[in-house]
Amino acid sequence: MKLDPRLVACGLCSALAFLLIPAAAYAQMGGQECSDIQMLQHKCGEQQQSNKKQQQTKKQSQYPNATRKEPSNLGVSGDEGKTLNAGLAAANSGDAATAQKDLQPIADSSKNNYAKALALLGLAQIKYNAGDTKGAIALQKQALDLNSLDNDSYFQGLFALAQMYVADEDYSDALTTLNKWQQEGRKETADAYALKGNILYRLQKYPEAVAAIEKAKSMTDKSQPSWDQIELASYFAMDKYDEAAKLAEAMLAKDPNNSKLMMNVVAIYMNAKQYPKALALLERARANGQIHDETTYVNMSKLYYNLAVEGTDPKQNATKAAQVLEEGMTKGIVQPSQDNYKLMGDAYRLAGDTAKANAAYAKAGLPPVGSSAGKRHGKKH
Question: Which residues, other chains included, contact 255 with Cβ-Cβ below 8 Å and sequence gap of 6+?
Fold first, then answer.
């Protein structure tokens, strides 16, 4: 049995959900106009002083140890600032038409590189939301290459670019970008190591992927199920079935009704040749009505049958092999094919029930037990 790749794929999907425009990236208004009332009341100076105090008390940078020197000109004033912020808000809310209308002129012709970079981030989000990942990457890179953003916006944009590369299945550039984010931003987070584990897994660097996921887990008490799935797939790819089994058992204990996960644990036990454990899980799944495909029913039957052929409780296991197939056929899940009826006949023959064996062989169009042609019955499946 093979590990179901759908489980890993679904687990990784959650890692690609992100906002391209961080809260810090909204335009910082460089100046505020006074209203007529404020001018009459001589409160313009008070307002400007208040603005300065607000700027001084703004939250600390998320990248205080970054090696990148933050540009000094980070303000956008007047109507351009208002239009820019409206466009960015529209992009974040999914209003592509308004965002395009507000942001494209700024990206095309603004003389303020800070405003231009922010507009490009918003346009990149529009492209990404529309499914144009390559177009989003081009605009995101253009925004970052201007080197005009504040550090929070720049490094959050760089992290988003790494995620875009993953979405585009360009894992080499994703790793290069993420490494740059870590080296220049001088920041380590659980999410960053989880993303690195995802990328390294895709690059088939399985030991490094495991190390990255373990690092992510060590940095938070809110480990995500997708992280376990990446680590599990990495162990499986390295044929480290004992490690995979330990992790899978822990995962299944947290989510006992997850059918796909259960089948992956079965696959791990099968590859590790821990057949009793595999059958115990399959029986649990069968009892709970969690087996919905022919392949699982047939593999379960073959597993019982082969154990019987090897001499492990031959009558009991052979009988179970036949009963599993019969149940699958009764439910309409297992097809009444020649191969399946032959397996059923072989199982009943090994269990010593010649009548049921011959009935199954007849449905398979095969000769009965005891005939010269029937000597080929009973081989291991």
Answer: 225, 261
Backbone angles phi, psi at 52, to 5 degrees: -65, -40
Buried b (16+ CB within 10 A) or exposed e, 99-135: bbebbbebbeebebebbbbbbbbbbbbbbbeeeebee
Query: pLDDT by residue (tens digit) across 242-257?
Result: 899 899 889 888 888 8
For the chain, list the domains and their CATH numbers: 1-23+76-187 (1.25.40.10), 296-381 (1.25.40)
- The answer to whether 247 and 235 are in contact (CB under 8 A) is yes
Beta bridge partners of 29: 76
State the pLDDT at residue 14: 38
- Alpha-carbon span 206 to 223, nearest angstrom: 19
Nearest Cα residue to 121 out of 74, 95, 153, 147 = 153
**Full DSSP string of 99-155:** HHHHHHHHHHH-S-HHHHHHHHHHHHHHHHHTT-HHHHHHHHHHHHHT--S-HHHHH
CA torsion sign, 209 to 212 to 214 to 217? negative
pLDDT score of 48: 46
CA angle 362, 367, 369 (to 5 degrees): 100
pTM: 0.74
Angle at 56 between CA 51 and CA 62, to 5 degrees: 125
Indicate the DSSP class of residue 28: E
User: What does the mean pLDDT of the chain come to?
Assistant: 85
